[in-house]
Design brief:
11 helices; 2 domains; 5-stranded mixed β-sheet
Length: 257
């Protein structure tokens, strides 16, 4: 019988990958968003709904999975990616409304450990990451597809640490699943965004990767080409409004000027 924690992790992935049906009303907005935005975007959507009375439906998963679903005809009105690469893929396939793309957020990449008050480390070329793992695994999002995993591998490559830990990496479909593995003690260490680590009481941030070790972490947003929502443009604009900026900042995201 599967371990209860394994079943819990599987349920996380299943819920995050579930796609809601097409919004019933023309004014409703269906947003496909990177999993790392789960808590903050939920708060922004609640604020929008309270202010306007309009409904927003949110679907969270890895940016790569969401982009592919949009390319296959999924009925999203807005896409928010954790990486410019997947937004550019949708631009190239003609799945975005021209002129609507904008960068709305930034983030940082951190090394986390299971438990509270774990001693910090210096993340540089001398870090014995493999030694710290022992017989455990390094939890990461998919390193060839999901932005958090791509950024994480880029940082480890830059520091010369990737080859030593590559056989020890446990990859997940999205960054929140990677966080959950560490929070539940299935892996001693993981690489996630700073904002993900902040929502868990069961992990410690033990180091922040140098900014120069990976491409800048930016979250672009855009309206999809197939959107039929009368409120998609208004909600996209709200994402960079003063009320939304205060919410983003409260969750630890960088907010461009």
């Amino acid at each position: 019988m599967p371990h209860p924690r394994t079943l819990f992790l599987a349920s996380i992935c299943a819920v995050m990958l579930a796609i809601p049906p097409r919004a019933a009303l023309a004014g409703d907005v269906l947003v496909f968003a990177a999993a790392s935005l789960t808590d903050a975007l939920g708060a922004v959507a609640e604020a929008w709904q309270a202010e306007t009375g309009q409904r927003v439906t949110l679907s969270f998963a890895g940016s790569s999975a969401l982009a592919r679903q949009i390319q296959e005809g999924a009925p999203a009105d807005i896409f928010i990616s954790a990486s410019p690469d997947w937004m550019e893929a949708l631009e190239h396939s003609g799945d975005l409304r021209a002129g609507t793309r904008r960068d709305i957020l930034g983030n940082r990449l951190v090394l986390i450990a299971h438990g509270r008050d774990v001693a910090p480390v210096v993340i540089d070329e001398t870090l014995d990451l493999a030694g710290m793992l022992g017989n455990g695994r390094l939890s990461m999002a998919l390193t060839e597809a999901v932005p958090a995993g791509i950024y994480g591998r880029a940082a480890l490559d830059y520091l010369g640490l990737w080859d030593g830990v590559a056989p020890l990496v446990a990859q997940s479909d999205n960054v929140r699943a990677a966080l959950a593995f560490v929070a539940l003690g299935e892996a001693p260490l993981g690489i996630v965004y700073a904002t993900d680590a902040a929502v868990s009481d069961d992990v410690s941030v033990i180091g922040t990767f140098p900014a120069q070790s990976h491409p800048p972490i930016r979250y672009p947003a855009a309206i999809t080409a197939q959107s039929g929502s009368a409120n998609a443009a208004a909600f996209l604009e709200y994402l960079t409004s003063d009320p939304a900026r205060a919410i983003w900042a409260g969750y630890g995201f960088g907010v461009p000027d």
